[in-house]
Structure formats: C-alpha cells, structure tokens
Fold this sequence. Notes:
Layout: H1 2-25, H2 27-46, E1 53-57, H3 63-70, H4 80-85, E2 93-96, H5 105-117, H6 120-131, H7 145-159, H8 163-177, E3 180-181, E4 186-187, E5 198-200, H9 207-217, H10 220-236, E6 247-250, E7 256-260, H11 272-289, H12 292-308, H13 332-348, H14 353-366, E8 386-389, E9 394-398, H15 401-418
Antiparallel strand pairs: 1-2, 3-4, 5-6, 6-7, 8-9
Helix pairs in contact: 2-5, 2-6, 5-6, 5-7, 5-15, 7-8, 7-9, 8-9, 9-10, 11-12, 11-13, 13-14, 13-15, 14-15
Amino acid sequence: MKKIKSILIAATIILGLVACQETKRIGWTAHALDIASYQLKQTASALEDTVMMPRSTWTFHDDGFLVSQLGHANIESDDPEEVYSVEHLKGQRRDCPINDWTSGFFPGSLWYAYELTGDEELKKQAVRYTNILYPIRALAGTHDLGFMINCSYGNALRLAHNDTIAAVIAETADALYKRFDPNIGCIRSWDFGSWNYPVIIDNMMNLDLLFNASKITGDSRYYDIAVAHAKTTMQHHFRPDYTCYHVVSYHNDGTVEKRETHQGKDDESTWSRGQGWAVYGYTSCYRETKDTTFLQQAIHVADMIMARVKTNDSIPYWDYDAPAMAETPRDASAACVTASAFIELSTLIPDGQKYFDYAETILENLSAPEYLAKKGENHGFILMHSTGSLPHNSEVDTPVNYADYYYLEAMKRYLDIKKPING
Ligand code: GLY
C-alpha cells in the first residue's frame, strides 16, 4: 500500500512538472493573444462610426532604396503620380473601403481572436464588421472575393452558423464561378492591365470558399472549378524547382501568353508571399480532395521554402531573391501564411513534424518584441514588418491586416494541436 502511495506521489510530481514546462513553453501565446485582443478592440471602436477597415500604414521610400532592392530601375508604378500624392500621409494608418482586397481580414481577425479568447466584445465587433461586407458578395471585377468573404463570412459561418451567412458564401461562389473560363481552366484574377487573361498565384486562396460553397449548397460546380483551377495552376505557374511565378497570363485557347511578376523582385524571382499562397492553397486542395498530387505539390513548395529562407529567424525577406542585407525589408505576412499552411500540412501526413516545428519557430519569433506590437502602438495592428508591394513603393516594412489574420489563424491551428494543459 505504502509503495502504491509513493508511486502515485512520484507520478503526480512528474505530471506537475510536465504541465509546468508546457505552460511555460507556450506562455508566449497567452501574451500574444492578450496584445492581439487589445489591439483589435481598440481599432474596432476607433472605426465604429465608419464603414472603413484598417489595412496598413502609408509608407514611402526613395527610389534609390527601391532600385537597390530590385536590382533594376523598373519601378512598377501603374500611376507614378499616385505614389507621390500620398507621400504626405507617410506613417499614418491606411484604412480601406469594403471593396478593397483586404477588407475581410479585420473581421476575420476579430473572429479568430474571439474563438481563441471567448471574449464576447470581440464577437460583437466581429459581427458588426462582417455585416458591413454584405454588398461584396456579388462584386464583379475581381477574384479577391475569397479573401474578402471567406475570411469574414466563412469564419462567421463556423462560429455563429445561420442560413443568411451560408447564402452569402453561395452567392460569392456564383460571382467567382462567372470568372472561370473552361477553355483556360482558371478563374480570371484581374480586369486591369494589358494581360489577356491574368491569373495570379494568390488566386489559390479562393478555393476554400468554393469548397465551402459546394458543401453548403450540394452543388459540385464550385468544387469542380476549384480543382480545375488548382490543376491548371500546378501545370503553368511552377518552375522545376517548385518556386512559382506571380502572374501567368493565358491566351483564349489556354496556352500561356506570358509569365511575370507584379509584386516580386523580377519576373524570375521568388516572391515570398506568393510561395505562401501556393503552399497554403495546395494544402487546402489536398484536405478537400485527398488527391495526392496536390499533397506532393504542397510538400515540394514547403521544402523549397525551408531551403530558400535566408534569415536567421525564418521570417523571410520580402522576396526569397532579395539581397540578404540588414536593410532588406522582411515580410511577416508571408511568414504568417506559411506558418498557418505548415501547421495544417503537418496534420495531413505521418512525417509532418518538421513543418510543425518550422511553423512553431515562426510563431514564436513573431511573438517576440521584434515583431509583436506593444499595446496601444503600431496603429492598432498586431504585427510589424510586412511588405505589401515593394516594386510599387507601397506598404514596405509596415503592419498589414493580412499578417494579423494569418498569424491568428496559425495560432489557432497551433493551439489546437498543443492544447495547453494549464491554460
Ligand atoms: N493578393 C495580393 C497580395 O498578396 O499582396
């Protein structure tokens, strides 16, 4: 009896120590979520009387810096006057209207923060900011509907299911369906520019909305175009080393017109966020289809990312081919998208631990003072040091709402696996 008692005491001590270590190890998540909730609530109430969303801050760099980053002088200003017209706004928060491609990320961040903390104030604000996006469901002229509606209404459907939300997802899928050309096998990305039929790698991020819409409606057309889009993109966007082009434009018969970059260093470079969209998109496609060609694609892209990163903290420079110099801007948003995808990928394969570990490193580093805002600072955003489009001199080394969104999503996926023993 005495022996059993001793064994029980020893076992309790060991369990206690393990729990203590585990709590300490993921204590950084509690700190990060505290900051995230504070920042989101402050910003939500600051914008409460408007129909604007917080997007980033205005940045402005001189041409010499841009040329040194790009290695060439082809600065991509669609309208050079436009860049200089906002110089005086430098350093201020940049808000955006609901038809901006990033409008779904702030409501989506509120939903994830609510899910992670149970804070009802976050839910109240999530509902408010999601409702503002209602007119977007039938927006023509852009492929960004997946970002806008799946991150907002898609999370609302998970966390506060109702038929109105489901109908919004279905209507949005119809709008995307209209942008699919069966001769090309892709959803058209942009309606601007001189390309015949531009498709960007970012477009892989629409597919989750289409998969959701098929489940909600029972209509397999949305699933079918998602799969077709993923297959065509796999065929034409990737180089033999599994890096991908940003833009591929097609002729009407489905042959390639040209392959280019829009936001990367040059046409043959490896734009960091684009690689994140790729690994995220193919991981989703495998989750939904169980087609192992999508899984292999996700694994190849993931391995390429880990091999190509040049920074010590795994938060990549804005392009994997950018000069490895102290002044080269990072892209925390690329790191967040990558981390979220890697955590999901790690759950889909038996030997996924290395992807989980890589994502954990990213999340821990982003949750340190080098990247994580202090309460009340950073214009209300959670993370610092992302890059939107360096060739356009736009949002270079700044907070952006999509970094915050994918950071919280990654954190949710991370904590679902780690399941803290002691809070
Ligand atoms: N979808 C635009 C971007 O990634 O910047």
